[in-house]
Amino acid sequence: MRQEVTELLGIRYPVIQGGMAWVAEHRLAAAVSNAGGLGLIGAASAPPEIVREEIRKAKELTDKPFGVNVMLLNPNAEEVAKVVVEEGIKVVTTGAGNPSKFMPMWKEAGVKVIPVVASVAMAKLMERGGADAVVAEGMEAGGHIGSATTMTLVPQIVDVVKIPVIAAGGIADGRGYAAAMMLGASAVQMGTRFIVAKESIVHENYKERLIKAKDIDSEVTGMSTGHPIRVLRNKMTREYLKLEKEGASFEELEMLTLGALRKAVVEGDVVQGSVMAGQIAGLVSKEETCEEIIRDVVENGEQLLKSWV
Ligand code: TUI
Questions:
Q1: Atom 22 in ligand 1: which residue has the minimum CA distance?
Q2: Who has the most CB within 10 Å: 169, 195, 199, 248?
Q3: How far, in Å, from the CA of 62 to the mean position of ligand 1?
Q4: Using one digit for the tens of pLDDT, what is the confidence trace for 2-38?
Q5: Ligand 1 mean position to 8 CA, how many Å?
Q6: Is the CB of 68 under 6 A from ligand 1?
Protein backbone atom coordinates (compact mmCIF):
# COMPACT_ATOMS: atom_id res chain seq x y z
CA MET A 1 0.00 0.00 0.00
CA ARG A 2 2.84 2.39 0.85
CA GLN A 3 4.19 1.76 -2.63
CA GLU A 4 1.06 3.34 -4.13
CA VAL A 5 2.12 6.78 -2.96
CA THR A 6 5.88 6.40 -3.36
CA GLU A 7 5.37 5.25 -6.96
CA LEU A 8 2.75 7.91 -7.67
CA LEU A 9 5.09 10.66 -6.52
CA GLY A 10 8.47 9.17 -7.43
CA ILE A 11 9.77 9.35 -3.86
CA ARG A 12 11.59 6.85 -1.62
CA TYR A 13 9.64 7.12 1.66
CA PRO A 14 5.88 7.64 2.17
CA VAL A 15 6.38 10.92 4.01
CA ILE A 16 5.26 14.30 2.75
CA GLN A 17 5.88 17.69 4.30
CA GLY A 18 3.05 20.06 5.18
CA GLY A 19 2.72 23.20 3.05
CA MET A 20 3.22 25.51 6.02
CA ALA A 21 2.85 29.25 5.38
CA TRP A 22 6.17 31.14 5.76
CA VAL A 23 7.88 27.93 6.93
CA ALA A 24 7.72 25.74 3.84
CA GLU A 25 10.13 27.68 1.63
CA HIS A 26 12.70 26.36 -0.87
CA ARG A 27 15.36 25.21 1.60
CA LEU A 28 13.00 23.07 3.68
CA ALA A 29 11.25 21.65 0.61
CA ALA A 30 14.56 20.71 -1.03
CA ALA A 31 15.90 19.16 2.20
CA VAL A 32 12.81 16.96 2.64
CA SER A 33 12.95 15.85 -1.00
CA ASN A 34 16.70 15.19 -0.81
CA ALA A 35 16.01 13.01 2.23
CA GLY A 36 13.61 10.84 0.22
CA GLY A 37 10.26 12.40 1.21
CA LEU A 38 8.15 14.86 -0.73
CA GLY A 39 9.12 18.45 0.07
CA LEU A 40 6.60 21.20 -0.56
CA ILE A 41 6.77 24.92 -1.08
CA GLY A 42 3.87 26.52 0.75
CA ALA A 43 2.55 29.27 -1.49
CA ALA A 44 0.33 30.54 1.36
CA SER A 45 -0.45 34.22 0.68
CA ALA A 46 2.68 34.88 -1.40
CA PRO A 47 2.42 36.74 -4.71
CA PRO A 48 2.78 34.46 -7.76
CA GLU A 49 6.21 35.77 -8.73
CA ILE A 50 7.61 34.95 -5.30
CA VAL A 51 6.26 31.42 -5.64
CA ARG A 52 7.99 31.16 -9.04
CA GLU A 53 11.29 32.29 -7.48
CA GLU A 54 10.92 29.81 -4.64
CA ILE A 55 10.32 26.99 -7.13
CA ARG A 56 13.40 27.97 -9.13
CA LYS A 57 15.56 28.16 -6.00
CA ALA A 58 14.37 24.72 -4.87
CA LYS A 59 15.26 23.30 -8.30
CA GLU A 60 18.83 24.49 -7.73
CA LEU A 61 19.01 22.58 -4.45
CA THR A 62 17.46 19.27 -5.51
CA ASP A 63 16.93 17.10 -8.55
CA LYS A 64 14.29 15.09 -6.68
CA PRO A 65 10.54 15.69 -7.07
CA PHE A 66 9.00 18.38 -4.90
CA GLY A 67 5.56 19.97 -4.86
CA VAL A 68 3.73 23.21 -4.18
CA ASN A 69 0.89 23.71 -1.71
CA VAL A 70 -1.71 26.16 -3.01
CA MET A 71 -3.61 27.83 -0.18
CA LEU A 72 -7.09 28.50 -1.54
CA LEU A 73 -7.90 31.49 0.66
CA ASN A 74 -5.12 33.33 -1.14
CA PRO A 75 -6.69 35.97 -3.44
CA ASN A 76 -3.84 35.14 -5.87
CA ALA A 77 -4.59 31.39 -5.88
CA GLU A 78 -5.51 31.39 -9.57
CA GLU A 79 -2.22 32.98 -10.64
CA VAL A 80 -0.29 30.68 -8.33
CA ALA A 81 -2.12 27.71 -9.85
CA LYS A 82 -0.86 28.80 -13.29
CA VAL A 83 2.72 29.40 -12.12
CA VAL A 84 2.82 25.83 -10.86
CA VAL A 85 2.01 24.56 -14.36
CA GLU A 86 4.39 26.97 -16.09
CA GLU A 87 7.24 25.85 -13.86
CA GLY A 88 6.62 22.16 -14.58
CA ILE A 89 5.74 21.21 -10.99
CA LYS A 90 4.55 17.60 -10.85
CA VAL A 91 2.67 17.54 -7.53
CA VAL A 92 0.26 20.01 -6.00
CA THR A 93 -1.44 19.86 -2.63
CA THR A 94 -4.16 22.33 -1.74
CA GLY A 95 -5.45 23.64 1.57
CA ALA A 96 -8.23 25.62 3.19
CA GLY A 97 -10.82 25.20 0.46
CA ASN A 98 -12.16 23.44 -2.60
CA PRO A 99 -9.70 23.28 -5.55
CA SER A 100 -12.25 21.95 -8.11
CA LYS A 101 -11.94 24.90 -10.47
CA PHE A 102 -8.19 24.32 -10.92
CA MET A 103 -8.33 20.56 -11.32
CA PRO A 104 -8.93 20.40 -15.12
CA MET A 105 -5.97 22.71 -15.79
CA TRP A 106 -3.68 20.74 -13.50
CA LYS A 107 -4.79 17.34 -14.77
CA GLU A 108 -4.29 18.43 -18.37
CA ALA A 109 -0.74 19.51 -17.52
CA GLY A 110 -0.04 16.12 -15.92
CA VAL A 111 0.20 17.53 -12.41
CA LYS A 112 -0.63 15.07 -9.62
CA VAL A 113 -3.30 16.74 -7.47
CA ILE A 114 -3.57 15.96 -3.76
CA PRO A 115 -6.17 18.11 -1.98
CA VAL A 116 -6.00 18.37 1.80
CA VAL A 117 -9.47 17.58 3.12
CA ALA A 118 -11.08 17.66 6.55
CA SER A 119 -14.27 15.70 5.79
CA VAL A 120 -15.54 12.58 4.05
CA ALA A 121 -17.78 14.63 1.75
CA MET A 122 -14.85 16.70 0.50
CA ALA A 123 -12.73 13.57 -0.02
CA LYS A 124 -15.45 12.01 -2.20
CA LEU A 125 -15.89 15.21 -4.17
CA MET A 126 -12.15 15.42 -4.80
CA GLU A 127 -11.96 11.81 -5.99
CA ARG A 128 -14.82 12.46 -8.43
CA GLY A 129 -13.02 15.56 -9.67
CA GLY A 130 -9.91 13.54 -10.54
CA ALA A 131 -7.68 13.90 -7.48
CA ASP A 132 -4.77 11.44 -7.44
CA ALA A 133 -4.80 11.10 -3.64
CA VAL A 134 -6.10 13.06 -0.66
CA VAL A 135 -4.51 14.20 2.55
CA ALA A 136 -6.98 13.52 5.40
CA GLU A 137 -6.03 16.14 7.97
CA GLY A 138 -7.37 15.88 11.51
CA MET A 139 -7.89 18.77 13.90
CA GLU A 140 -4.74 17.83 15.83
CA ALA A 141 -2.88 19.64 13.05
CA GLY A 142 -1.50 23.16 13.34
CA GLY A 143 -2.85 26.10 11.38
CA HIS A 144 -6.24 26.09 9.65
CA ILE A 145 -8.21 23.01 10.74
CA GLY A 146 -11.50 21.18 10.39
CA SER A 147 -13.38 19.52 13.24
CA ALA A 148 -12.75 15.75 12.93
CA THR A 149 -9.79 14.04 14.56
CA THR A 150 -7.21 12.09 12.56
CA MET A 151 -8.23 8.86 14.33
CA THR A 152 -11.83 9.19 13.14
CA LEU A 153 -11.32 10.93 9.78
CA VAL A 154 -8.71 8.66 8.19
CA PRO A 155 -10.59 5.32 8.36
CA GLN A 156 -13.89 6.91 7.32
CA ILE A 157 -12.25 8.39 4.22
CA VAL A 158 -10.28 5.19 3.50
CA ASP A 159 -13.59 3.30 3.42
CA VAL A 160 -15.20 5.44 0.74
CA VAL A 161 -12.45 6.38 -1.72
CA LYS A 162 -10.26 4.23 -3.99
CA ILE A 163 -7.43 6.74 -4.28
CA PRO A 164 -4.60 6.67 -1.70
CA VAL A 165 -5.21 8.49 1.59
CA ILE A 166 -2.36 10.34 3.28
CA ALA A 167 -2.88 10.87 7.01
CA ALA A 168 -2.06 14.20 8.68
CA GLY A 169 -2.55 15.83 12.05
CA GLY A 170 -0.84 14.61 15.20
CA ILE A 171 1.85 12.51 13.51
CA ALA A 172 5.47 13.14 14.47
CA ASP A 173 7.15 9.80 15.14
CA GLY A 174 7.19 6.11 14.24
CA ARG A 175 4.21 5.37 16.45
CA GLY A 176 2.09 7.94 14.66
CA TYR A 177 3.31 6.62 11.30
CA ALA A 178 2.42 3.03 12.24
CA ALA A 179 -0.96 4.07 13.66
CA ALA A 180 -1.79 5.97 10.45
CA MET A 181 -0.93 2.91 8.34
CA MET A 182 -3.12 0.77 10.62
CA LEU A 183 -6.00 3.15 9.94
CA GLY A 184 -5.53 2.46 6.24
CA ALA A 185 -3.39 5.42 5.20
CA SER A 186 -0.81 4.98 2.43
CA ALA A 187 1.52 7.72 3.64
CA VAL A 188 1.80 10.45 6.26
CA GLN A 189 2.09 14.22 6.06
CA MET A 190 4.00 15.97 8.85
CA GLY A 191 4.33 19.67 9.58
CA THR A 192 5.15 20.36 13.21
CA ARG A 193 8.22 18.12 13.39
CA PHE A 194 9.67 19.70 10.23
CA ILE A 195 9.32 23.21 11.70
CA VAL A 196 12.27 22.43 13.98
CA ALA A 197 14.35 20.76 11.26
CA LYS A 198 17.92 22.06 10.99
CA GLU A 199 17.17 23.12 7.41
CA SER A 200 14.05 25.07 8.49
CA ILE A 201 14.57 28.84 8.37
CA VAL A 202 12.09 29.46 11.19
CA HIS A 203 13.36 31.88 13.87
CA GLU A 204 15.17 30.23 16.81
CA ASN A 205 12.58 31.64 19.28
CA TYR A 206 9.80 29.81 17.41
CA LYS A 207 11.76 26.55 17.39
CA GLU A 208 12.52 26.92 21.13
CA ARG A 209 8.89 27.64 21.93
CA LEU A 210 7.81 24.57 20.00
CA ILE A 211 10.43 22.33 21.60
CA LYS A 212 9.35 23.53 25.06
CA ALA A 213 5.64 23.08 24.30
CA LYS A 214 3.65 20.59 26.35
CA ASP A 215 0.66 18.44 25.37
CA ILE A 216 -2.05 21.02 26.06
CA ASP A 217 -0.20 24.19 25.00
CA SER A 218 -2.20 24.88 21.85
CA GLU A 219 -5.41 26.85 21.42
CA VAL A 220 -7.82 27.23 18.51
CA THR A 221 -8.50 30.84 17.58
CA GLY A 222 -11.10 31.95 15.05
CA MET A 223 -13.83 29.40 15.80
CA SER A 224 -16.37 32.24 15.64
CA THR A 225 -15.09 33.65 12.34
CA GLY A 226 -15.21 30.31 10.53
CA HIS A 227 -11.40 30.19 10.21
CA PRO A 228 -10.26 28.04 13.12
CA ILE A 229 -6.48 28.15 13.48
CA ARG A 230 -4.44 26.06 15.91
CA VAL A 231 -1.56 27.98 17.51
CA LEU A 232 0.56 27.74 20.65
CA ARG A 233 -0.85 29.77 23.55
CA ASN A 234 0.69 33.21 24.17
CA LYS A 235 -0.26 36.84 24.79
CA MET A 236 -1.82 37.10 21.32
CA THR A 237 -4.06 34.04 21.75
CA ARG A 238 -5.17 35.18 25.22
CA GLU A 239 -6.19 38.58 23.85
CA TYR A 240 -7.78 36.99 20.79
CA LEU A 241 -9.84 34.47 22.75
CA LYS A 242 -10.96 37.16 25.21
CA LEU A 243 -12.12 39.42 22.36
CA GLU A 244 -13.75 36.48 20.60
CA LYS A 245 -15.68 35.60 23.78
CA GLU A 246 -16.83 39.22 24.05
CA GLY A 247 -18.24 38.93 20.53
CA ALA A 248 -15.67 41.05 18.70
CA SER A 249 -16.18 41.60 14.97
CA PHE A 250 -14.31 39.70 12.28
CA GLU A 251 -12.41 42.90 11.39
CA GLU A 252 -11.29 43.48 14.98
CA LEU A 253 -10.04 39.92 15.27
CA GLU A 254 -8.31 40.10 11.89
CA MET A 255 -6.43 43.19 13.08
CA LEU A 256 -4.93 41.15 15.88
CA THR A 257 -3.70 38.34 13.63
CA LEU A 258 -2.78 40.21 10.48
CA GLY A 259 0.84 39.50 9.79
CA ALA A 260 1.10 37.63 13.08
CA LEU A 261 2.50 34.45 11.55
CA ARG A 262 5.26 36.35 9.77
CA LYS A 263 6.00 38.16 13.03
CA ALA A 264 6.59 34.83 14.78
CA VAL A 265 8.36 32.91 11.99
CA VAL A 266 10.57 35.70 10.64
CA GLU A 267 11.00 38.13 13.55
CA GLY A 268 10.84 35.54 16.33
CA ASP A 269 8.09 37.39 18.20
CA VAL A 270 6.54 34.41 19.98
CA VAL A 271 4.67 36.66 22.43
CA GLN A 272 2.50 38.70 20.03
CA GLY A 273 2.99 36.52 16.96
CA SER A 274 1.05 33.50 15.74
CA VAL A 275 3.02 30.36 16.64
CA MET A 276 1.15 27.79 14.56
CA ALA A 277 1.84 24.19 15.57
CA GLY A 278 -0.01 20.92 15.96
CA GLN A 279 -1.05 19.18 19.18
CA ILE A 280 1.91 16.83 18.79
CA ALA A 281 4.31 19.71 19.57
CA GLY A 282 4.75 18.27 23.06
CA LEU A 283 6.44 15.24 21.52
CA VAL A 284 8.87 17.24 19.40
CA SER A 285 11.95 17.65 21.54
CA LYS A 286 14.95 18.45 19.36
CA GLU A 287 16.28 20.04 16.21
CA GLU A 288 17.41 17.45 13.66
CA THR A 289 18.08 17.29 9.95
CA CYS A 290 15.21 16.32 7.63
CA GLU A 291 17.12 13.13 6.90
CA GLU A 292 17.29 12.22 10.60
CA ILE A 293 13.59 13.02 11.06
CA ILE A 294 12.43 10.94 8.11
CA ARG A 295 14.71 8.03 8.98
CA ASP A 296 13.48 8.03 12.60
CA VAL A 297 9.80 8.09 11.64
CA VAL A 298 9.99 5.51 8.85
CA GLU A 299 12.42 3.05 10.52
CA ASN A 300 10.60 3.02 13.85
CA GLY A 301 7.21 3.01 12.16
CA GLU A 302 8.05 0.10 9.85
CA GLN A 303 9.59 -1.80 12.78
CA LEU A 304 6.35 -1.44 14.74
CA LEU A 305 4.23 -2.52 11.80
CA LYS A 306 6.41 -5.61 11.26
CA SER A 307 6.13 -6.65 14.89
CA TRP A 308 2.33 -6.57 14.70
CA VAL A 309 1.80 -8.97 11.80
O1 TUI B 1 -4.76 24.69 4.98
C2 TUI B 1 -4.41 24.11 5.97
N3 TUI B 1 -3.74 24.71 6.98
C4 TUI B 1 -3.39 26.04 6.99
S5 TUI B 1 -3.63 27.15 5.74
C6 TUI B 1 -2.95 28.35 6.66
S7 TUI B 1 -2.77 29.97 6.09
C8 TUI B 1 -4.07 30.77 6.77
N9 TUI B 1 -3.78 31.80 7.53
C10 TUI B 1 -4.77 32.54 8.07
C11 TUI B 1 -6.08 32.20 7.86
C12 TUI B 1 -6.40 31.12 7.13
C13 TUI B 1 -5.37 30.36 6.57
C14 TUI B 1 -2.56 27.85 7.85
N15 TUI B 1 -2.81 26.57 8.01
N16 TUI B 1 -4.68 22.79 6.14
C17 TUI B 1 -5.42 22.06 5.19
C18 TUI B 1 -6.86 22.11 5.52
N19 TUI B 1 -7.78 22.31 4.63
N20 TUI B 1 -7.41 21.98 6.73
C21 TUI B 1 -8.75 22.09 6.56
C22 TUI B 1 -8.97 22.29 5.23
C23 TUI B 1 -10.19 22.43 4.51
C24 TUI B 1 -11.26 23.09 5.08
C25 TUI B 1 -12.43 23.25 4.34
C26 TUI B 1 -10.28 21.94 3.23
C27 TUI B 1 -11.43 22.10 2.50
C28 TUI B 1 -12.48 22.74 3.06
O29 TUI B 1 -13.58 22.87 2.30
C30 TUI B 1 -14.54 23.82 2.62
C31 TUI B 1 -15.32 24.11 1.39
O32 TUI B 1 -16.37 23.48 1.25
O33 TUI B 1 -14.85 24.91 0.58
A1: 96
A2: 169
A3: 28
A4: 899 999 999 999 999 999 999 999 999 999 999 999 9
A5: 24
A6: no
